[in-house]
Amino acid sequence: MIQPIDYYAVAPPLILALTAGLVLLLDVFLPRAPYARPLLGIVTLAGVTGALAVVISQAVRAAGPLRTFCVPPGLSGAAAPGPGAPFPVTAPEAGAAPPCSFVVDGFTLVFAGLALAAGIIVVLLSMTELSFGDIPAGEWHFLLLCTLTGAVALPASRDLVMLVVALELASLPVFALTALRRYDGRGSEAAVKLFLVSVVSTAVMLFGISLLYGLTGTVYLERLARVPHAVPGAAAGVLSGSGAGTAGSAAVTAGGADGAYASSLQIGYDLPPVLAVATVLVLAGFAFKVAAVPFHAWAGDVYEGAPIPVAALLSVISKAAGFAGLILVLVGGLRNLAPVWAPLIAVVAALTMTAGNLLALRRRRAVRLLAWSSVAQSGYILAPLAVRDERAMNASVAYLAFYAAMNLGAFAVVMLAARRGESGELDGYRGFAARSRIAGPALAFFLICLAGLPPGLAGLFAKIVVFRELVGGGLGWLAAVMAVNTVIGLYYYVAWVVRIFTPASVPVATTTPAPAGAPAMAPASVPAPGVAGTAPEAVPVAPGAASATAGGHTGQVAAGVAIALAAVVAVLFSIAPQTVFVLLPKTLIAIG
């Protein structure tokens, strides 16, 4: 039997994969000329833009979700659990569509579009990073495209196996990207830490998924969503050896009109602890990926040790992929077990936003501050998921979109400042607005947006949306925790903005008093860089320095374009924040 494939549905990840192969071939056959590195960047940028164009075309079409890699109709009956599995899944309704592994719906389009739009910014930052020649360009762009392929395929995954494969495809290339700069000890250390953390998180998540499969006999999210409908009766039938038909119907009644459980107390009597353990393990695995407490300790060292484009990728694209998988599994597959995981999500969200903000308070380096700020933002994104409502899930997705534009813009300015010789310390940004009349105010605007202060109304609106959902969902205590953390975040964001507009301190020249009778000598002065009227000593120019200088200019232009794109989106979201909700479909997830 040949399974049909809808190539239009899989076109975005397919375009990215083909572009990755093309970049490798070009890297092999292109001469080592000055134009080779920019050309590879342009090819990568064209591939990402083409994939984004396909995603937009899929979004504007009026038909329903696209499905492919589906179970053949003759094999789409009830899942067959393994020997001793106590939770066989109920058979699908008559006429129901067979479960599929790849579904392009509103949820897929939102996350794929977000990942690809962020990918354009990261590619531009990568062109800046690669302009100085200490990183192999072909391997960099290939690994970056592989990561984007996984990030685009993950929100379309509707079975646990494909979800794990896509998540690892989005994660594994980042290890190599982190350590790709030659002779960089900090980068190698960051890559090892990230590798160890990711391996542990994957092992924990796979253990939870294996328990889910062992209990239910299925990997499809659609069938997992029906598990609680027949669990109590089915369990009785299997364990006692009696028929499960009558018990199964009684189980549905016990679980409520829709088969869902009203409280965690009822689940405790109906389900064995192993199902709750499986849910917690899956949640813990994704908590590693999004740097949620208590699995957040790697963020500071990895962000600072990695190249800045990789830090930006981790803070937005990898985080978006992690949240996409978390929402799919919890809201899509285990939504009837919400009384088990929703309280955990609320507690983890509160701890994450608090720990991230407190750790960011004492940071003195720009990238490390953005790293811990990113951890705090993960807590804000997690919080609405504890409400157990699809509208609240929309609030998480909307906040992620706001955050992506603001955070990428901040990383882009930090990248440009580093290439211009600015110190990575926060105190090194004193007078930055005077030294760079465009980049300085742009960085201040992005930080004000992250803080949620006017005129950065994008961040303010994002926080208001989350507050509204928390209060409306009965989680007033979590809204209060978020309010306190928002005030804490104001301190370090505003402190950085103040440094940007504070004039830099000028060192005062000191003179040594001359001995009595000696002629007075004028204090020696060191000409500042770029001051006219000085004749510096000629410095020999190494071969290829001119091309390196030209490459640095090209890289600064790419960083400038990235800042402009992020600023345009952030300003648009500040002027018309409802644009984000207009882009969100009414129904996000089509399970299978």
Task: List its salient traits.
592 residues; mainly alpha; two-stranded antiparallel sheet; 65% helix
Q: What is this structure, in a nutshell?
A:
This protein has 22 helices and two strands. With 592 residues, the chain is an all-alpha fold. α5 packs antiparallel against α13 (308-333), α13 packs antiparallel against α16 (390-419) and α14 runs parallel beside α20.
Explained architecture:
The protein has 22 helices and two strands. It has a two-stranded antiparallel ribbon with strand order 1-2. The chain is mainly α. The relative contact order is 0.10. Helix 1 packs antiparallel against helix 4, helix 12 packs across helix 15 and helix 15 runs antiparallel to helix 20.
Discrete helix count: 22
**Strand order, biggest sheet?**
1-2
Q: Helix-strand pattern, N to C?
A: HHEEHHHHHHHHHHHHHHHHHHHH
Q: What does the main sheet amount to?
A: 2 strands, antiparallel
Q: Which value, in Å, is the CA radius of gyration?
A: 27 Å
Q: Roughly what is the average pLDDT, rounded to an integer?
A: 80
Distance between the termini: 21 Å
Poorly predicted tracts of residues: 229-269, 516-550
